[in-house]
Amino acid sequence: MLRIRTPRPVLAALALSVSLTACTAQAADGPGGTGEGKGATAKGPAAKVTVVDPAAGRPVTVTATGGTLAGVKVVDADGAALAGRPGAGGTRWVSDRKAVPGTTYTVEVVSRTADGSETTTRSTFETAGADKVNKLTLAPGKNTTVGIAHPLSIVFDLPVTRKADVERQLKVTTSNGTEGSWGWIKDHSGRDRADWRPRTYWKPGTKVTLAADLNGTDSGGGWFVRDYLTGFTVGSAQIVKVDLDRKRLTLSRDGSVVRTIPVSGGTPGGDKRSWRGTAVLMAKEGTINMNSETVGLGDAYDKMVDHSMRLTWSGMYAHAAPWNAAYFGRANKSSGCIGMSDADATSFYATVNVGDPFEITGEDTKGTVAEGNGYGAWNLSWEQWKAKSALR
Fold this sequence. Notes:
- By secondary structure, the chain is mainly beta.
- Helix content is about 5%, strand content about 40%.
- The chain has three helices and 26 strands.
- The strands form six sheets. The protein has a five-stranded antiparallel beta sheet with strand order 2-3-4-7-6, with no helix packed on it.
- The protein starts with a strand and ends in a 6-residue tail after the last helix.
- The model is unreliable at about 1-45 (pLDDT under 50).
């Protein structure tokens, strides 16, 4: 809804229309505020300029009757301009971006009649404020270097019911033309999330940029009132393979095995089993407190754990587990995590990167890592993932 500023109330009924009389160079009142007309003396009636319905979430549109638009400038209170383009033979101008809620805009229009006379008019309008403002969290962090499996991930604070409208504003560019697709999923927190995943793992050295031109976009659950820009670089091609049946972890870099580590995975036959499928190293959290009650395992454990590497939101980690030393390489006796010795955990922690894939196999597991439980998109085929785009 539009709030109109009208220094001269009698003109409020003009409904965003600026009408200029012939042969004038004096100030003229414009729609929704003040307008000024100036220019050379015309030989006929000046063009009538109309600013059409510049409500929040819609482009600003300017039209001219009885002439053409020689120039249009739309700026907000901070001086930021809304770019746009002419159409309809020069009688119509539409902004490329949508009007933002709770924002005051000044519109300056230069109109030209058939005899070449030009007139400049100015008007001001203000869009209604947003009842709810949607915000987002981006991963990976800006200017970081990550492993070859890390997706570009966006978690939204408020629900996104107009997913196609939002996805259209998310522009991903890569340094090498990587093929990829957005997919909409539910984050483990229950919030809406959009991930951009390549068709296959990233190529090392790829530079990725996201321009989220969301300012003025209605998500359905709230308005966005700013744009976002982020980017990251893909590091070395490291892949971690965890074979729960053989109780062994293998780290490869650029196709060559770097090292093999004996491990102990989740205890078979119940809730303490590990997940299988491809998980992505989400964070290197160091020494943290692990409490079994937070993952639904009662009072099984409550201890400080070193070299903790998070693989899922549900609590699966790779970490040092010296209390299980007798089982490394021999039996799966953990509460769901991938445990190893202090010495192995120290060097492994220093070597792996956030974004490295952990490809986990094993006969007795809880199931496959879900898309929203960390970064589980790699457990879907490419066709299945593309089908999750709102623009498919």
